[in-house]
UniProtKB/TrEMBL annotation:
<keyword id="KW-1003">Cell membrane</keyword>
<keyword id="KW-1133">Transmembrane helix</keyword>
<feature type="region of interest" description="Disordered">
    <location>
        <begin position="219"/>
        <end position="239"/>
    </location>
</feature>
<protein>
    <submittedName>
        <fullName>Cobalt/nickel transport system permease protein</fullName>
    </submittedName>
</protein>
<keyword id="KW-0472">Membrane</keyword>
<feature type="transmembrane region" description="Helical">
    <location>
        <begin position="103"/>
        <end position="125"/>
    </location>
</feature>
<dbReference type="InterPro" id="IPR002751">
    <property type="entry name" value="CbiM/NikMN"/>
</dbReference>
<dbReference type="Pfam" id="PF01891">
    <property type="entry name" value="CbiM"/>
</dbReference>
<feature type="transmembrane region" description="Helical">
    <location>
        <begin position="7"/>
        <end position="28"/>
    </location>
</feature>
<feature type="transmembrane region" description="Helical">
    <location>
        <begin position="137"/>
        <end position="164"/>
    </location>
</feature>
<keyword id="KW-0812">Transmembrane</keyword>
<keyword id="KW-0813">Transport</keyword>
<feature type="transmembrane region" description="Helical">
    <location>
        <begin position="72"/>
        <end position="97"/>
    </location>
</feature>
<feature type="transmembrane region" description="Helical">
    <location>
        <begin position="40"/>
        <end position="60"/>
    </location>
</feature>
Amino acid sequence: MHAPDGFIDAPVSIAAGAVAVAGVGLALRGATRELDDRTAPLAGLTAAFVFAAQMLNFPVASGTSGHLLGGALAAILVGPWTGVLCVAVVLLLQALLFADGGLTALGVNVITMSLVTVAVAYPLFRALVRVLPKTRAAAAGASFAAALVSVPASAVAFTALYALGGTTDVSIGTVAGAMVGVHVLIGIGEALITAATVSSVLAVRPDLVHGARELRRRPELRTRAAGASGADRAEPSQA
């Protein structure tokens, strides 16, 4: 999915860079409402996980491989604004340190792999969580669906940018067929990883999953004997 330098012409790359800067700027403002002392460390861990996962490719078909995009996972775990920032930072570091995606194409890559994946996955996840049973399995299923849809959506966005400024002789129909077809398969891998990760976090710390706030455990009332009088004392617990 990482677009290299020169694959999209200069005018479209510049325009994409401007859109990406505006999107990241909005995300910086929005993230201030999502992050606090408890969730900020999780955002760092999420970005690190996406960075590592994007470096690992899994086979798809006919010699093609794919990797996690991470937008759906990041948005569900830490919120949509922070999710955009996590993936954008990962893409910047990959371009600078590993030449994974061109610097002149960074705006294109931020749009396709950060802005579009989050914009598609998070609203879909929240809509499904609202209508499905409030269980961990249902939330995992919703995260699977959101991640699955977000990947081909990213491929469609790239195809649109290629239609505007592609520099190769490959026809737009060929690009569209190859991108969407392969990324539907990649989306299945993305969906499995996302669902497994979200389900695992929900199992131990549901309070840390931003997108599944409905599943947070309600405080329970426990009683225990207090002192020699033997009188019971009630206290709230998060257990």
